[in-house]
From TrEMBL:
Residues 640-876 form the Sec7/BIG1-like C-terminal domain. The lineage of its organism: Eukaryota, Metazoa, Ecdysozoa, Arthropoda, Chelicerata. Residues 133-153, 605-626, 666-696 are annotated as: Disordered. InterPro entries: ARM-type_fold (IPR016024), Mon2/Sec7/BIG1-like_HDS (IPR015403), Sec7/BIG1-like_C (IPR046455). Residues 1-16 form the signal peptide. It comes from Ixodes scapularis (Black-legged tick). PANTHER family: GUANYL-NUCLEOTIDE EXCHANGE FACTOR, LD29171P. This is Putative guanine nucleotide exchange factor. Residues 133-145 have a biased composition (Gly residues). It comes from the Eukaryota. Pfam families: BIG2_C, Sec7-like_HDS. Residues 666-692 have a biased composition (Low complexity). Residues 282-363 form the Mon2/Sec7/BIG1-like HDS domain. Keywords: Signal.
Length: 888
């Protein structure tokens, strides 16, 4: 019935209310509209309800186009009827709350006029213009009144219609009824009575109130905050609702605070923030049950505001609000910690010192104090805390804060180490992670990952500190890491060497390689040495790949470090290597040898773009280096790597410094042989002189014997005994290839002159004399050592053939040398060769001497140094004895 008759009823009630001023008729019409709304609400007739409520709202004149000077008593009664509807049918009003709350918002202005308080802006534009009959707003906040909001009263009517004192008095008398005690109390009951609304109705009510609040704030010059204040009030009134209902309410309120908090008006945003702070404190005081996450919801607007609002004042206010929560309610905060760290994370990148300092101080207090008392409540947000500290560290404007942030991250590692069970037992949001891996995923990994991010993002001093702390954490706590954790960790660490992540500018890339990559490489080897039992089978192959990458870069320091780290790794852990591991190690050295052989030295020709090649290396701008300069730099690095790798093999096989000591001892022994022979005509030395000479000879023999004993001990410390004969001969092949390349280059005078003129080595004619001599010396040491090793008898025949061939080739080459400087580079090599040959037993000595004899005879015709002649003399004396051609 009502479905069919509601439109005629509405027309009748509307005409009667509009055209008739009789109070009784008006009362009947209003009562009819109220009853119609009641029927529509009971039967959930949305269209009919909305139509009647909108009609009632229009007759209040609060949202109509008519000026408020035309308001009569029937309009006041309409307002009262609308309030009654709100009281009685609140649970059924749905979207009609919007019309009711709009009227109440404008009623607040009418009350100001009725009480004689002049609003700031009482324009006459209609609701269709985005403002009410009273205009866009009133001053102040809270109840909406402003004691300073005084404007000319002419704004109270339509434009151009003057307002005299008499009319103003009549208007105030008319509006005074709206400020009666009954109306004020009734309006207030709408908000206090919101507690009686059901779960759906309260959401509709809050949504409508937020919409009205936005309309009030829409006026950029005179925003009103009446509804915003009411939002805070109803939130207090409804604090006792269950969390399920509050979650739905906060979906609306949170979005509203997001928008209002980012208002261009700082006054509005400030008031919204203060309101949000009050609500948040109230919610936090109530605490939070386990497995609930409501704190995350009502703290999220703080994140949104600090992220979107660029006003320093508002951002500072957000940080202060959150800091106050932490300082006063830390014990009650549960899921809200994530939002708190998110706010501080956003503040950490700010350029305002006050904002950064306050955020950092509060974060530091959480890590150093709150963690100790409430770590269980904070474990879910542990990753967020570490990420927040990382962001502080990456703020280049405040280096002291950066350093302190890294220290706090180091401090966080202590909590993970001391309370691993907390991470395992705590209910995680992601249940897919196995229990035993939770401490890694939620604890160790965030710490190490964020430290690596600092390394990748920050300047030299900060990233160096972060790198140091990262490896300190690994070395200190790595004993508890599982094998697959190590694999994840080294994926992070090797990102430091990732070409795609390196700086693009040459200067920055060179600095990165020389400092950070270099530092990381040594630290990685230290970690490998400390935890080799775990890491050896897991990651040694990856480490060899990384070392190979380092020596291939056109950076002398990094390339040198690559070979040094390979040496340290093998010397420190070689005793634990399996045969397979030694094969991989030797293959790694072989690969490095081959890829770093500077073959282009033999074939280089000037490029057409080079122009004047005498200035190839003179470019000061690395970004505009010539092609030749780039090639020359690469070739220089390869030459360095070849030398370093030769020394590395020598140190690995025989222990560092052993070969240098042997060379020094060989020279000392040879020089001791150099003594002026007594002439036949001279007197025989005195008996005292003979005894002195005998003592000196005995002392020399004692020193030589002690040095030989020390040499043997150091050889035992080297890795020689752990390498198979095949592996040693593979290294010999590498060294010989390097040696023969150096010989070929040193003999190519024309190519060396070409490179010299192009400025390859500045004003020095390029040569590879050191590479030529040291590679051959290492070959001889390895072969002679194998030759007298009783444990390698099966390889003696092969070693003897290789040794005789190498020595013959070396003597032939030495005799062909034309320059004195070139021969001088072979002095220690000749002493080594002659000394080692003389230590052979008679049978082996005869086999070798019969091959070398003619070459050494040729050597006597050359102008050699006294030390070499002395050792050569001993060789020939030994030949006489070994071949029975003399008696001695």
């Amino acid at each position: 019935m009502f479905k069919l008759a509601w439109t005629p009823f509405l027309a009748a009630f509307s005409v009667g209310l509009q055209d008739c001023d009789d109070p009784e008729i008006a009362a009947l019409c209003l009562d009819g509209i109220r009853c119609a709304i009641r029927i529509a609400c009971i039967f959930h007739m949305t269209l009919e309800r909305n139509a009647y409520v909108q009609a009632l709202a229009r007759f209040t004149l609060l949202t109509a186009n008519s000026p408020i000077t035309e308001m009569k008593s029937k309009n006041i009664d309409t307002i009262k009827t609308l309030i009654t509807v709100a009281h009685l049918d609140g649970n059924y009003l749905g979207k009609s709350w919007l019309d009711i709350l709009r009227c109440i918002s404008q009623l607040e202005l009418a009350q100001l006029i009725g009480t004689g308080v002049k609003p700031r802006y009482l324009g006459s534009g209609g609701a269709g213009q985005g403002s009410s009959v009273f205009g866009g707003g009133s001053g102040g906040h809270g109840g909406g009144a402003s004691q300073d909001s005084v404007l000319d009263p002419m704004e109270l009517t339509r434009p151009g219609l003057p307002m005299d004192q008499k009319r103003m008095a009549l208007l105030q008398e008319s509006m005074g009824e709206t400020s009666s005690q009954s109306v004020v109390v009734a309006v207030d009951r709408i908000f206090t009575g919101s507690t009686r609304l059901d779960g759906n109705a309260i959401v509709d009510f809050v949504r409508a109130l937020c919409q009205v609040s936005l309309e009030e704030l829409a006026n950029p010059s005179h925003p009103r905050m009446f509804s915003l204040q009411k939002i805070v009030e109803i939130s207090y009134y409804n604090m006792g609702r269950i969390r399920l209902q509050w979650s739905r309410i906060w979906e609306v309120l949170g979005e509203h605070f997001n928008r209002v908090g980012c208002s261009p008006s700082e006054d509005v945003a400030f008031f919204a923030l203060d309101s949000l702070r009050q609500l948040s404190m109230k919610f936090i005081e109530k605490g939070e049950f386990a497995n609930f996450r409501f704190q995350k919801d009502f703290l999220r607007p703080f994140e949104h505001i600090v992220k979107r609002n660029r006003s320093p004042t508002i951002r500072d206010m957000v940080v202060r609000c959150v800091a106050q929560m932490v300082n006063s309610q830390a014990a009650n905060i549960k899921s809200g910690w994530k939002n708190i760290f998110s706010v501080f994370h956003l503040a950490a990148s700010d350029r305002d010192e006050g904002i950064v300092e306050l955020a950092f101080q509060t974060t530091g207090r959480i890590v150093t104090q709150t963690y100790g008392r409430h770590f269980l409540a904070l474990v879910d947000s542990f990753q967020d805390a570490v990420k927040c500290l990382s962001e502080f560290a990456c703020n280049a404007c405040f280096p002291d804060t950066s350093m302190e942030s890294i220290r706090l991250i180091r401090h966080c590692a202590k909590y993970v180490a001391e309370q691993p069970q907390t991470f395992r037992d705590h209910n995680m949001e992601d249940q897919t992670v196995p229990e035993e891996d939770r401490v890694w995923v939620r604890g160790w990994f965030p710490i190490l990952f964020e430290l690596s991010c600092i390394v990748n993002r920050c300047k030299l001093d900060i990233r160096t500190r972060a790198l140091t702390v990262m490896f300190e954490v690994v070395k200190t706590y790595g004993a508890s890491f599982r094998p697959h954790w190590w694999q994840d960790l080294f994926q992070i660490i090797f990102r430091i060497f990732d070409n795609m992540k390196l700086p693009e500018r040459h200067n920055e890339k060179a600095e990165w390689m020389t400092t950070t990559c270099n530092h990381a490489l040594y630290a990685i080897v230290d970690v490998f040495t400390q935890y080799y039992d775990v890491l050896g089978n897991l990651l040694l192959d990856d480490l060899f790949v990384q070392l190979h990458w380092c020596v291939q870069q056109d950076n002398k320091q990094l390339a040198r470090s690559g070979t040094n780290c390979l040496e340290n790794l093998v010397i420190s852990n070689g005793t634990k290597f399996s045969t397979e591991t030694w094969d991989k190690t030797c293959q790694c050295m072989l690969d490095i040898f081959k890829t770093t052989l500077p073959e282009m030295l033999l074939t280089w020709t000037p490029s057409k773009e080079g122009g004047n090649h005498e200035n190839v290396q003179a470019s000061d701008d690395p970004e505009h280096r010539s092609k030749d300069e780039v090639q020359f730099n690469s070739l220089k690095v390869k030459c360095v790597v070849q030398l370093e790798l030769i020394q590395t093999i020598d140190n690995i096989v025989f222990f560092p410094a052993t070969s240098r000591k042997e060379d020094a001892e060989n020279l000392a022994a040879a020089q001791a042989e150099v003594a002026p022979a007594p002439h036949a005509s001279q007197q025989q030395p005195s008996q005292q002189g003979s005894r002195q000479q005998q003592r000196e000879e005995q002392l020399l023999l004692h020193q030589l014997g002690r040095s030989l004993s020390l040499d043997q001990q150091q050889e035992e410390q080297g890795m020689y005994g752990f390498l198979s004969s095949g592996q040693l001969l593979l290294l010999v092949d590498c060294l010989l290839e390097s040696h023969r390349f150096a010989k070929a280059f040193n003999a190519h005078g024309e190519q060396r002159n070409l490179l010299w003129r192009a400025g390859f080595r500045g004003n020095v004619k390029p040569n590879l004399l050191t590479q030529e001599a040291q590679s051959l010396a290492c070959v001889l040491r390895i072969l002679f050592r194998m030759y007298r090793d009783e444990g390698r008898q099966d390889a003696w025949h092969t070693v003897q053939d290789r040794l005789i061939g190498v020595c013959r080739e070396a003597l032939q080459y030495y005799l062909s040398l034309a320059t004195e400087s070139h021969r001088e580079s072979w002095d220690s090599l000749l002493l080594l060769f002659l000394t080692r040959v003389q230590r052979l037993d008679d049978e082996r000595f005869r086999a070798h001497a019969s091959v070398y004899y003619p070459y050494l005879c040729e050597l006597t015709c050359m102008d050699e140094k006294p030390a070499i002649r002395a050792v050569l003399r001993k060789f020939f004396l030994r030949v006489g004895t070994a071949f029975n051609v003399s008696h001695h």
